[in-house]
Amino acid sequence: MTQPSQKQVHLGFENHTVKIPVDRLIYSQPLAPTIKKGTKYQQIKISIKAIGLVEPLVVIQHPEHKDKFLLLDGHLRAEAMKDLNLQEATCLISKDDEGYTYNKSVNRLSSIQEHRMIVQAHENGVDAKTLAAALGISVDAIRERFRLLNGICDEVATLLADKPVPKRVFPVLKCMKAFRQIDVANIMINLNNYSLKFAMAMLHATPPDQLVESNKLKTAKNSSALESLQQLEKELALVQADTKLLEESYGPDNLQLTIIKTHIKTILNNARVINWLSKSNREYLEQLQLIAEM
Predict the structure, then answer these.
(1) The model's pTM
(2) Are 60 and 91 in contact, with CB atoms under 8 Å apart?
């Protein structure tokens, strides 16, 4: 019996990082003049100064200057390293022009990923005070992030690992038993709604036998809990009805959007087109990139 042939997977990046001098990096897009005044830039700069570069920069060989590299992801980190007079940066090298759309395929650090990064840094010997200084938050806030997943079941932590869940949602989930946590997490993912308001609505719609004991006592003492629950159930029913209406037009609309996005991504994958738009019609390039990442 013939064995089915295995398809080879083409890696878009080198499988190891390299050290590249910062002065050999060329930005693929200019930084806004006021970018260094922002809180985000200051946090990045303080973080790199305190614990070094955590996430490598993403680069591609410059098409015109062989001794230079075009920076695809990590412009703020690279700028912060220059301000700190750091000579080399850890980089991941992209193999092809698809790297030009790298930013659009990246999910920014979620609450759970941030929690794991902080825990890992702490296990590597970085104390809470240093971490707090690096992230520009208080030591108490760092300790809260250490405990982020205490009381959250492993299945939910896996489901929400890369989702944009606000930190304040996790204490709400902790009021529920494990089975209910999984149920709520799946509903959030299906509706793409991770807001605190929605999490509270799901908490109030949770039967008492699916709540942890401490939350049962709080619910029993609240005289208006039943009225709130009924109101939230009505609101949830309205949301489900609206969702049903959206489902009817979702298929055709999504097909049209997919075709448009695919065509635009094909255009943006061409390095020559990117370079021309960047020099001649930057506002068009920005609009096309916005459409491609919708």
Answers:
(1) 0.49
(2) no
